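Last lecture ended with a question: if I hand you only a sequence, what can you say about the shape of the protein? Today we answer it with a concrete record. The protein is Carboxypeptidase Q. Below, first the input exactly as provided, then the predicted structure, then a couple of comments.
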Amino acid sequence: MKKIFIILPLFLSGFLFSQKKPQKSPAKKGTVARFNYHDEFRKISDEIMTNGTAYDNLGELTKRIGPRFSATPGYTKAVEWAEKKFKEIGINMIWRQEAKAPVWIRGKESLQIRSGNGDWKNIRMLSFGNSEGTGGKDLVGEIVLINSTTELNAMSIGQLKDKIVFVNIPMDPKIINTSDSYLQTAKSKLISASVIAKTGAKALIIRSLTTANDDTPHAKMIYYEPDDKVKIPALSIGVRSADELEKTLKKQKVTAKINMTAESKGDTTNPNIIAEIGGKKDSKVIVLGAQLDSWDIGEGAVDDGTGVVQCIEVLRTLKALGYENNHTIRVVLYANSENGGQGREMYAAYVKKKDEKHVFALGTDAGGYSPRGFSLDMSPQRRRLVYPWKEYFLPYGVYDFDQTEAIQDISPLKKLDIPLAELVVDTQRYFDYHHSEQDTFDKVNKRELLLGAVAITQMIFMVDKNW
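The predicted structure:
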């Protein structure tokens, strides 16, 4: 009986593309005709792979606007660009939702190291986002290497006082899912400026969280605890510099000289951009989201320009095919995802206050690589409703429905018991470019980007017809 209830919604659905009735398999007398989902999936795929504009849109977003960091003119330009794109595809319902955003300025920054009594050597570095600076003055101190919490706990009181702590923890190459590897490393207490400050240390240097074997530093977000008496500067360096520094530290004393003019200047507001196609059957909402902001370095192509243009492509495709959706299909382009997350919190608060019924939320923030599946962060009962859809996705290389965590900007909606899903892609190259100056348009493959848009549109379609 359970199988009947799982599959029955697929038999009872129907919809209209371009005012053409969908093809149905011949029905035997006394039975319900089966809807041909394979044909409708193909229509979606053919439209996007032939007429898709996501790649061209990404070129505009990255090359004409570039970095879209919170509280900067670049973000303001991105907002205006997104609104224009929604209007161009025929979306009439577009609005802004203001969210708090910190004003943080990176300024000038430099790191020099000296072995023994040798000469100072410049090292490429990046301040953590929202990090305190050195006031433009040189902060000089001996570097101490700590690569495990055991080493940290073994330090006696005073051993790290006025020292500069260096943490050289690589992403674990044995973990095949690079997102899991990243998160495991990112959660280490050793790369918390608040934890290190409590030891008496006066600065933190970490190895960039990346899978690349180069010397490009990658940015990271910093969170200071409310009870921090001292907010120490924190920065990252490339993996080659990190490994070389560790080798040198094992042989002799190394001194660092840090100079950062980074500073915070309070808060302002940046808007989420929301666009939707109203439902023909009811006002229940299917929401699709990506972050509009990016780091202040690079062009923000893989993180998350690809997600932005995929969201726009979903609405463009539905309009082009003349699809009459049952529920409201909404896109939210979130503000302040990189250095605060206020945009996603604001949207979740809005949904709660309005008591809007959301049947599904999907996020895309993984770089526009080849789609492999969807992580289903929902109840087991809901997950079982999705599993029978696998056969329709398989011809498009989408097969992984076993992951169960959606951690992108849709995550606050989980507190409202909204079923979540996240596009799963092949992430083996994602962290080569993530949060670095290497995150540029040329790193994105057009076909992979469009295939991701195909999978997302197909999933939105299936939820709309069956939930």
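Comments.
1. DSSP finds 14 helices and 15 strands in the chain.
2. The two ends are 19 Å apart (CA to CA).
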